[in-house]
Amino acid sequence: MLNLEPQRKQNHCTCAARVHRSVVSFCFCLTFVQSFNLKNKTKRKRKLIVLTFLVTSIVQENVGSDGGSESYQERLSRLEGDKESLILQVSVLTDQVEAQGVKINDLESSLMEHQHKLNCTEEMLQQELLHRTSLEKQKLSLMGEVSYLKLKLTDMEGKQGHGAERQHKAEVLLKELRILKDKVQHLEDQKLQYEKKLKATKVKRPSFYTCFYFYLSRLRRTQSGGFQAADPDAGQFRRGGLRATAGPRLTRTPESDPTRDMNIPFSQWTKEQVCGWLEDYGLGQYISLARQWVENGQTLLSATPQEIEKEMGVKHPLHRKKLQLALRAFTTKVVEKSAELDHIWVTRWLDDIGLPQYKDQFHEARVDGRMIQYLTVNDLLTLKVTSQLHHLSIKCAIHVLHVNKFNPNCLRRRPGDEKQPSPSEVVQWSNHRVMEWLRAVDLAEYAPNLRGSGVHGGLVILEPRFSSETLALLLNIPPQKTLLRRHLAMAFAALVGFQAMQEKREYGNATGHMPLTTTAKVKPKKLGFTQFSHLRKRKPDEAADYICPIDSGAPAANGDSRLLSPVHRGLSPTLDRHVGFFLS
């Protein structure tokens, strides 16, 4: 028994060393498995089976080696405890391996995403390089075009020197045309005088045709009262409304009505004659109140504006102005050619100058030819014309009417046979004719933008602030299209003429010059406290701020050779030159 105790201790140490070696080998296997990249669960199961086999083999080896020294139950219990601890360690390490596998999968997916983004970035870089090369090619081509245009410009400047002789010949032809124009005007005046004499003879000797015309006019009067005024709030441009293609209609003057003898003064007209005249004059809505108040023509002649507004119910300021102008014409006994143009003709005239969006307002106010020459800034604001460009358009159009002696057909709507029109012809172009010119200079896609813009020949020639830049803004040509704008500027300069273009440049380079914009608005003038005392001292004619001033020293009849006011002549040298040409 004494000899067996050291041997038992030696066997126990040997067994512990073996267990230690087995544990070390097991940990080495686990470390090897953990460092190994397991990609799927089947491989992990296989590795766990191998580890279990190794553990069981190690345990069996330990069990076999200690068979002779210890009892079977003790060794078995100790080995089972070691087995359980090892299994716990194996499960922990297995969970760690699975967690590391999940992280590896996440890293691989993120790596694939970054690789895809890198490929997309490389493709975008390639496209950017291709786009840059194409832009450089376009730049080179544009530089070539610019050099070609510079050469062409120098060539044209050289040819311009040779055009002095042609200009001299053109001036000679213009003088001959003036002589022919004067002869034609003289013949037209003789024709008008003959027609007046013929009408006077018809009034003195009434016949069957005169009576028929009287009943026909009565029928027309009964039908004219059914025309309803348009909505005054509809100020925007829209289709419909008044007919734009109606011919130039001349109003019925008092001398054309056989029931009214022009030898009888207006103050001696009867109530029925005055009411019939009001209906022919476009103010038929006030006849019912006029029958109750008016006794004869003298009632209207002696009435003040306040009495007319109170007794006849004339609330519209332009209706009162229309009536006052007509009564003043009866008092002064001056026959104006503008009085032959009625409010229907004015709506067509608005179409011709490119402002059809104001036809309803002008028709409701019954603006006729006589009122056009006496329109003020406040009158236009009452008609809802607030754009500064539209004010200038109406002003230049009225100037053209003055120069052409209020000829209803003075504006040209269709292109003629001229190849290179002169400024004196361009000044009579309508808005449609300017659009035809844009089509002729290869700008047809921008021509519809001039509808409702107020651009006509009078504005192009007579307004010094109207330039090619203003026209480009109205046509909505983008600023980056420099070649297109340059082409428009060259065509505009050729249309206006060298001298007028030079004057426009000088006016634009002057100090204090305000460029003309398409968005500028006209505001009504506000009176201060110091200006109220001067209003009572002024006369109505002096206080009127006419949109188209008339020279007070000129004859009152606008059919004669009337000069424009000094205010207008100082505004635009171009306008002075053309007005002098028309009136010479």
UniProtKB/TrEMBL annotation:
Transmembrane segments: none annotated. Residues 227-263 are annotated as: Disordered. SUPFAM superfamilies: SAM/Pointed domain (SSF47769). GO terms for cellular component: cytosol; presynaptic active zone. Keywords: Coiled coil, Phosphoprotein, Repeat. The keyword tRNA-binding does not apply. It holds the Pfam family SAM_1. Residues 69-124, 170-204 form a coiled coil. It comes from the Eukaryota. InterPro entries: LIPB1/2_CC, LIPB1/2_SAM_1, LIPB1/2_SAM_2nd, LIPB1/2_SAM_3rd, Liprin, SAM, SAM/pointed_sf. CDD domains: SAM_liprin-beta1_2_repeat1, SAM_liprin-beta1_2_repeat2, SAM_liprin-beta1_2_repeat3. GO terms for biological process: neuromuscular junction development. Residues 269-333, 346-404, 429-460 form the SAM domain. Belongs to the liprin family. Liprin-beta subfamily. May regulate the disassembly of focal adhesions. Did not bind receptor-like tyrosine phosphatases type 2A. This is PPFIA binding protein 2. It comes from Nothobranchius furzeri (Turquoise killifish). The gene is PPFIBP2.
